[in-house]
Specification:
20 helices; Rossmann fold; 4 domains; alpha/beta; 7-stranded parallel sheet
């Protein structure tokens, strides 16, 4: 099979190519190189690909190419298992259709007032609907959504929809689609129940398999820290200060833990927010919008709430809690290292949980390296490195004439070394404030506060020498 490596080699319009370039992509991922040409040719496909392989763009691009912008009726329907995934797919469609005038996209899902969706369907001349099966059926029953002119149907994360009990809903929808149509399934696995849908609703379908371990795992550097539970909150702050991510996700196993970690980070000046199922849909939408726009840089989430998050510039994922199953681990770390980019994944593991980590390593067929928490000296060196990198970039870019005149005026009466040192001090203080770096001279001390969660100790010595914590002993007496 001839693998197309560049988007420019695909038969795409200038409008779509321009939007792809705006997003910073030039080369296709394996699933994109195979799926896009087949979808453009109208072939029914079953694409087996894991999260993080660029699968969303693999069906969004051909859908946008095939849309008739002059025909103001629903031509494509995309079904997703969750509200979050529906929102993400809609967002990517809007980015890719940036230069294709006349394309109208609507996401429909539960948790949002249905009247608002009804108004959009009736007045906005929608051509692409992205929705959850339950809400799509609501609109079909109300006759506010017609599928009479639909020519493309996509089921994204189809196996998850079956796991969540949506089979009957999926069949109700597929039976409403005209006979002349293209049906496409994207799925991480192909269970037996899935084969029934393939045989019943697709015509001469082709199966595309992209191995997860070959395309997702190698792009992510994976590490773990051995920690006790009460050490985790201090550890996460040290890691954020050390690695200074543009965007990061912290995964917890429970909603309560999500709120605890989020509250603690916020109270210590970090730009963080939580995402879980107990939040209203408007709250979740607002958090995701802020995260996508980078007005917050740290998202603390449960597995279910984070399902479908598809943002390409997340560079670090933290497993605050080890996931309950191996598949969730792959989904979690798949939030980073997307579309050919590299990423980092750090897991917090207790001694008792080491067997879970070994199971994960066997499952992904990859060794996860042990690491140790950074010291204050490591964090200091990291911020120096970041500032020097920024200075070198500015020197390379040039355009410093305005500032040279100011420096010339200052050094008339001052030593140039002292002037440079003063400027660096300002840079360091600004960097610390912007990135919430908490060093020795700041308001809290990582080490002294580490003892606050060491409950149930009565006159016992607590030694935090391991893993880069403090090099002295504390005595805690139970009150």
């Amino acid at each position: 099979m001839n693998i197309i490596k560049k988007f420019s080699d695909l038969k795409l319009s200038n409008e779509i190519i321009k939007a792809i370039h705006d997003l910073g992509f030039e080369e296709t991922t394996p699933i994109q190189s195979i799926a896009i040409p087949k979808m453009l040719d109208g072939i029914d496909i079953v694409a087996q690909a894991q999260t993080g392989t660029g699968k969303t763009a693999a069906f969004c691009i051909p859908i946008l190419e095939k849309i008739n912008v002059k025909n103001k009726v629903v031509q494509t329907i995309i079904l997703c298992p969750t509200r979050e995934l529906a929102i993400q797919v809609s967002y990517e469609l809007k980015l890719l259709s940036k230069y294709k005038i006349g394309v109208n996209i609507l996401s429909v899902y539960g948790g949002q007032p249905i009247q608002k969706q009804i108004y959009s369907l009736s007045s906005c001349k929608v051509q692409i609907v992205v929705g959850t099966p339950g809400r799509v059926i609501d609109h079909l029953e109300r006759k506010t959504l017609s599928l009479d002119n639909v020519s493309i149907v996509v089921l994204d994360e189809a196996d998850k929809m079956l796991d969540m009990g949506f089979r009957d809903d999926i069949e109700i929808i597929l039976k409403r689609i005209p006979k002349q149509r293209q049906i496409v399934f994207f799925s991480a696995t192909i269970p037996n129940e899935f084969m029934f849908l393939i045989k019943k609703y697709q015509k001469n379908s082709e199966i595309i398999k992209i191995e997860d371990n070959k395309f997702t795992i190698p792009m992510i550097n994976q590490y773990y820290f051995v920690l006790k539970e009460y050490q985790k909150i201090e550890a996460i702050m040290k890691c954020i200060d050390m690695y200074n991510p543009n965007l990061a996700i912290i995964f917890c196993n429970t909603k309560r833990k999500v709120d605890e970690v989020s509250s603690y980070l916020q109270s210590n000046g970090y730009s963080a927010a939580s995402l879980h199922g107990d939040m209203s849909q408007s709250q979740r939408d607002n958090v995701m919008l802020r995260f996508r726009n980078q007005s917050i840089s740290i998202l603390i989430a449960t597995d279910v709430a984070a399902r479908g998050i598809d943002i390409d510039n997340i560079n670090v994922v933290f497993n605050y809690d080890i996931p309950k199953d191996n598949e969730n681990y792959v989904h979690r770390i798949g939030r980073t290292g997307r579309a050919g980019k590299t990423g980092e994944a750090y897991s917090f593991v207790s001694e008792k949980e080491m067997y879970k980590l070994k199971n994960i390593q066997r499952y992904i067929k990859t060794n996860i390296k042990r690491s140790y928490l950074p010291t204050l000296n490591d964090i200091e060196k990291s911020r120096i490195k970041t500032i020097i990198k920024n200075i070198n970039k500015i020197l390379k870019d040039g355009k410093l004439e305005k500032y040279k005149a100011i420096i010339d005026d200052i050094i008339t009466n001052n030593d140039i070394t002292n002037v440079s040192a003063a400027i660096l001090k300002i840079l360091f203080e600004t960097f610390d404030k912007k990135n919430n770096v908490k060093m020795k001279e700041n308001t809290h001390n990582y080490y002294d506060r580490g003892v606050y969660k060491a409950n149930n100790y009565n006159n016992k010595k607590i030694n935090f020498v391991k893993n880069g914590f403090i090099n002295k002993k504390y005595i805690r007496t139970k009150k």
